[in-house]
Amino acid sequence: MIKILKEKSAKLEWVNGYPAGNNETALLIPFYNESSNCDFTRRLFYYEEVARKYKDKMDVILIDDGSTDDSLEKIRSFVTDNYSEFIVVSVTPNTNKVGALFLTVLSIPHDLIVLSDFDTDIINLENLLAASQTIYHEKDLMGCYFRMLPYEGDGAIFRFQQFEYSLVRSLYEFHKKDGSVPVMPGAGSCYKRDVLVSIYREHSGFRSGEDREATLLGLKMGYRTVYKENVLTLTRPPLSFKTLVKQRIRWNLGYLETFYKEKKYYYRQISQLTRVGIRTVYDMFLFSFVVTLPLLLIVAGIIHIWLLAGFMVFIYAFCLLWCLYVLIFFRKETGDMKGRSIKTVLAYPAMKIAVDYFAWTGALFRFLRKKQDKI
Q1: Which of 186, 216, 218, 240 is the most exposed, having the fewest neighbouring CB atoms within 10 Å of its CB?
Q2: Backbone dihedral angles phi then psi of residue 23, each to the nearest 5 degrees
Q3: How many of the other CB atoms lie within 10 Å of CB of 147?
C-alpha cells in the first residue's frame, strides 16, 4: 500500500483541526463524490449528532477521498456554518478508500479505529466504548465486527436481503470458537490501530474486496476477531434487482482478487481443515455450482425431462431446508424480519440462485478481463 501511495503522491490535509488526543477511539467515515447524494446534508447532521454525543470518548473523522465534485466545498461550508464537532480530512488524489484510511490511521494517535460507511448508521456505540479496554488489551485480538442489518427499505428485494443477512450472521457461530470470520464488514467493525497499520502495509489497495482482504491479512498474522452483536450497523441496501447484482459483482470480484492474491494461505487452511479452510471449500463449491448450473440443467433436460424436474425440486428443497433450519435455531438473527417471512423464505431459494448466478458470472468475467489486461 505504501508503494501505491508514493506513486500517486497522495497527500493528507486536516480541514478543520486535528484530534486533541484525549480520546482512545476514532470513528472513520471515508466518502467520495457524495455531493449529488440527496441525503448529503442530512448525513452530515447525523455525524454531527454522533460526534457531540460521544465527544468525550470518541473522535468522529470524515475523510474526503479525492472527490472530483464539490463534496469537499459543501462540507467545508457545513463545518463553518455549524461549528461542527466532527473533524474533516482531505486526501488527494483518490486512493480507492484503503489509501485514504491508511493515511488517516497513520496520522492519528487513537488506540481503536471504528470503520463505517457514509450512508450507514451505527447504534449502541456505547456498548463498544464500554468494552474498549478489554478489546485493546487482548493481545491476539485484531478487533470486532458489529451486527449488520438492512435498514430503510421495503419490497421483495429488501426482504430478500433481510433474510440473506440473517443467514450470513448465523454462520458467525461457526467461526466463533477460533475467531476466524472471513470478513469484518467495512461498514461496521473496529480494529486496534497498530494491527490495522500492519494490515494496510500489506494490503493490495484493491477497492472491491478491501474489507475481506483486510480481515484475511489480520487472520494470516495470527489475530482473531469477535462478534459484538449488541452494536448495530444499519446499512441501506440496494432496492432493485439490477443494483443488487451490481453490488454483488463488486463483492464477488473482491473475493476472487483476494483469493488469487492470498491463494497459498487459503490452500494451507484447506489442507489443515481449519474453519477458514472449510468455509473456503464451501464457498468454492457454491461458486462452481452456481456458475455451471445452466449447463447442468441443460444436460439433465437432454437426458430426461423428469431428471430435470427432479434436479430442480432437489435444489429448491435443499435451500428451503437450510432456510428453515436457520429460522428455527437462530431466532436471534432472524428476528429483524418485518412480517411476511413465510413468503420471503419460500421465494428465497429462487432469488438467491438468480442473484448469485449473475453476480458470480459477472465477477468472473471482470476478474479474467483484468488478468488479461495485465498480461
Answers
A1: 240
A2: -105, 145
A3: 22
- CA 38 to each of CA 35, 42, 119, 171: distance values in angstroms, whole numbers, following the listed order: 8, 8, 11, 35
Burial of 328-355, coded b for 16+ CB within 10 Å and e otherwise, reads eebeebbebbeeebeebbeebbebbbeb
**C-alpha cell of residue 136:** 485493546
Helix (H, G, I), strand (E, B) or coil at 225: strand
- Element (DSSP H or E) covering residue 122: strand 121-123
**What domains lie within the chain, and their CATH numbers?**
1-110 (3.90.550.10), 122-188+205-375 (no CATH)
Is 102 exposed, middle or buried, given 0-12, 13-18 or 19+ CB atoms closer than 10 A? buried
CA-CA distance, 328 to 334, in Å (whole number)? 9
- Residue range 115-157, pLDDT digits in tens: 999 999 999 999 999 999 999 999 999 999 999 999 888 899 9
